[in-house]
Amino acid sequence: MSNQILFWSKVELRRHQAVILGELAPTMVLKNATYLNTARHCWTKANIWIYDNRIVYVGDNLPQETTGTEMVELDGKYVVPGYIEPHAHPFQLYNPQTLGDYASVRGTTTFICDNLKLFLSTPITKALSLMEDINKLPYTYYWWCRFDSQSELLNEDALFSLSNVKKMLSSPYVIQGGELTSWPKVMQGDDNLLHYMRETRRAGKRVEGHLPGASEKTLTQMALLGVDCDHEAMTGEEAMMRLNLGLTTSLRYSSIRPDLRQILREMKEIGAAQFDRVIFTTDGSTPAFYEEGVTDKMISIALEEGIDPIDAYKMASYNIARYYGKEHILGMVAPGRVAHLNILDAVQHPNPEAVLAKGQWIKRDGKAGKERSSFPWNDYGMGPLDLNWDLTLKDFQFSSLAGIDMVNSVITKPYHISLNPTAEKLDDDHDECFFMLVDKKGKWRVNTLLKGFATSVSGFASSYSSTGDILLIGKSKRDMLAAFNRIKEMKGGIVLVEDRSVVSEIKLPIAGGMSPLAVEELIEEEKKLTSELRKRGYAFEDPIYSLLFFSSTHLPYVRITQLGLYDVKKKVILFPSIMR
Fold first, then answer.
1. Which CATH architecture has domain 82-331?
2. How many percent of the chain have pLDDT more than 90?
3. Most buried residue among 382, 419, 447, 451 by CB atoms closer than 10 A?
4. Which element (helix H / strand E) includes 54?
């Protein structure tokens, strides 16, 4: 297959034709399979011929030429299209390659990925090359084009320039703009973002919204301005409202919003009768959340809630492919489609017993293939984090009266600091900690206090953040410094320190935010870190998402950013970052 995404050369197309003419043997034949016939919305029995990475025939016949063909008997088995994750944030400690390895064993073989990390971590030319070259792996990767950083960056205009956005949109690997976390700016007259939305439409690509709690009036305006889909419905009523307005509705089941079951129940109670414009997403959940499954888990929930099985599988495959205009190559068991296929022992069991990705066995007889894929991240400017500067106790000076109070995992509000922040160590009888954001290049810092994160975290540091800068949290300035030094030594990661000793850590040597470990191993590391944080008073759902969103200005009400402590509602800096 040529390197342009799923675009077969003339030579390849003639080979596919030769298979049908009996002049060339197919690579594989799946015999007597009962497959999901999405065109007819039914289950049909047929033989499925595959040549290399493509389905070339589905029907009653068997090939005339079978020299070298792998014949696989599937009588009593069910075949469905490979699942598609339409809203992947593939940098949540894992990386796109390790996510692909893990999710594909559970049937998800196509990912439509956030590219924010690429904008922030590597030059645009390398990002474009990465988006192309990662498709050499057995899975299929498409990408978004972000319009902004969802924070307040010192170099925002340079990173998200019209030139860079146009370069991204011109890539065949980019199939949507967004997600549009800065929709309030568009509503309030930001014509730069509106121009990016128009450029996306001009390129024939979708625009993904991010509209939590939006009213019918707001949703209508955003639909008029160019939003095609939204994944932020939190109730069945909100999901139905989006459908009523003509939006494709992406139902979410994630580590910070695990409420799919309730949404489906409410949609059915309201009267939802068909789901052709409904799709599924796990919205970039953290590793441990995937322990029970990825897209397959969402299908299981839908089946348990009485959703028609064909609808459930289409919401995870065909509906997504059709929405993005890719149904000619994905989302169907039909000639011409990529051989992403899941083999099930029963319709009610969406975790497949066997998986084909681009015609290769990823899983067979319930067992994953032994070989893991790999990807040379260093070649694309996403190597280990080199912190070639020092932090000292002089940097741990706190004088602000305004701090950050955590409402839940991701929502924060301002609060008035009343304790003395000049002490070297804070007491454990309250839930206030020292809190810092430090430039990964060592040029500036923001110092404040954080309330609600934990009662007895002594020193905690993370190079995993929404901007790639360093977060420091803790009761002890010396342990915070020790945690920073450990991150520096690891060249990226998350570390919890107590009495200058490491309690738990996750090494993240890929651009300071990603691990090369298999997701199964990463799950155990995350679970250990979360357990240790909970022992020290962390009480919310997901500490990893807390780290990610501390700087994210698409959420209320106050954020720590490169510019300083930022009031989201008033759009003002409460106090600025300090040059070191």
1. Alpha-Beta Barrel (3.20)
2. 97
3. 382
4. strand 54-59
Q: Regarding beta strands 278-281 and 341-344, do their DSSP bridges make them parallel or antiparallel, or are they unpaired?
A: unpaired
**293-305: pLDDT as tens digits:** 999 999 999 999 9
- Gap between the Cα atoms of 358 and 58, Å rounded: 16
**Cis amide linkage into residue 557, ω under 30° from 0:** yes
Half-sphere exposure of 152 (CA within 13 A, CB side): 22
Contacts of 114 (CB under 8 A, 6+ apart): 87, 88, 89, 90, 91, 143, 144, 146, 179, 284
Q: Can you give the three-state secondary structure of 57-75, one letter per residue? A: EEECCCCCCCCCCEEEECC
Q: Does the pLDDT of residue 4 top 90, yes or no? A: no
d(CA 50, CA 476): 61
The domain segmentation of the chain, as residue ranges, is: 82-331, 393-579
Instruction: Give the whole-angstrom CA distance, residue 250 versus residue 229.
Output: 7
Condensed to tens digits (0 to 9), the pLDDT of residues 419-449 reads 988 899 999 999 999 999 999 999 999 999 9
CA–CA gap between residue 501 and residue 496 (Å, rounded): 9
Burial of 188 (0-12, 13-18, 19+ CB in 10 A): exposed
* Omega within 30 of 0 (cis) for the link into 179: yes
**Sheet of 140-145, strand order:** 83-88, 108-113, 140-145, 174-180, 206-209, 229-230, 248-252, 278-281
DSSP-assigned beta bridge partners for residue 471: 437, 462
b/e map of 162-185 (b: 16 or more CB within 10 Å)? eebbebbbebebbbbbbbbbbbeb
Instruction: Please state, in angstroms and rounded to a whole number, the distance separating the CA atoms of residues 205 and 285.
Output: 25
Using CA atoms, how far residue 294 sits from 102, 251, 436, 459, in Å, is: 9, 14, 34, 33
162 alpha-carbon distance from chain centroid: 24
Query: What is the average pLDDT across 194-222?
Result: 97
What's the maximum distance between 2 C-alpha atoms anywhere in the chain? 84
pLDDT in tens, 370-408: 778 889 999 999 999 999 999 999 999 998 889 999 999
